Amino acid sequence: MHPFRFLHMKLRSLTVLFGIILFVLFSNNVLAESKMEETFLNEIRAAIASQEKQKFWKLFNLDGVDDEVKATLEKHLVKKIVKAKLISVSVEPLPDDFRTEYVVNGVRYRPNVKPLGLVKIIYKRKPQDPSTYTGTISGNPTTRVLYGQKGDRLMLAGTVKEKLAGDLPASKQIQVMVMGFSHPPITFEGTMIYLQGGKPLRDKIKDMGGGNVTLIVRGEAITHLEVRMTSAKGEMKVTIMEDEDIIFESEHVKGDQPVIFNRSLP
Fold first, then answer.
1. Any bridge partners for residue 122, and if so which?
2. In this structure, which CATH number among 3.10.450, 3.30.160, 3.30.230, 3.40.50 belongs to the domain 7-168?
3. What pLDDT does residue 27 have?
4. What percent of the chain has pLDDT over 90?
5. Is 227's pLDDT higher than 80?
6. Average pLDDT, whole number, for the chain?
7. Domain map (residue ranges) of the chain
8. CATH among 2.60.40, 2.60.60, 2.60.120, 1.10.150 for 169-266
9. What is the pLDDT of residue 33?
């Protein structure tokens, strides 16, 4: 056999072998990530099923998290989740417009893990009080929590604070609540614009599959909102709050009629 032909065959064999090795390494990496992910989800399911707060707390990376942030997590997430009747737990990728850092009252808030995605927790809605509303609120509550990797395990993200130099304007809690009334759940989409550190920020508003959504951000003020239903049936109502004050409340709207809020600031 000609030596160049032999060399060509040898190189081709090595190329194929190298390709097989890369494929095996990639496959093993995907399998390892999948196994880590499933272990993480099983830990969340077990913690919720136990209804013990300490077991749920162990899922968080609390490095650098101060007592104020811990108290907020306790009040708005941990206490609620451990009492919930779980429907499902899954993970989903971060949205393209997801922001991991916020500046509020001269303090930067950031996660203490490298963000990998969101844990999506769906649980059963508590029965409605017939004395307050006789209709049907569609869907089940859904909570999403940021997660990432620490060492050889996945963990829920904690939030750490960093004081920034200079004077920045005081901020408020801005809360947008979109409530759907229909079965099956309504779908909707829209945008909101608010000021944070004096700069306008735009966030998308979109149903998460349950027919309702509550968005909470920090900023000086909300200046614009527009939401419209994308489903053919049902009704929608939008409420906007800044701290404890309701600054806007729409009527129940049907069809593709948009709910619009505009405000000019001095």
1. 88, 142
2. 3.10.450
3. 39
4. 48
5. yes
6. 82
7. 7-168, 169-266
8. 2.60.60
9. 62
- Which range among 115-119, 124-128, 223-227, 258-262 shows the weakest confidence by mean pLDDT? 124-128
Q: How confident is the model at residue 256 (pLDDT cuts 50, 70, 90)?
A: confident
**Token pair in block for residue 227:** 């939401």
The mean per-residue pLDDT over the stretch 194-217 comes to 87
Residue-wise DSSP of the chain: --HHHHHHHHHHHHHHHHHHHHHHHHHHHHHHHHHHHHHHHHHHHHHHHHT-HHHHHTTB--TT--HHHHHHHIIIIIHHHHTS-EEEEEEEPPPTT----EEETTEEEEESSEEEEEEEEEEPPPPP-TTT--S---S--EEEEEEEEETTEEEEPPEEEEEPSS-----EEEEEEEEEE-SSPP-EEEEEEEEETTEEEEEEEE--SSSEEEEEEEESEEEEEEEEE-SSS-EEEEEEEETTEEEEEPPPEETTPPEEEE----
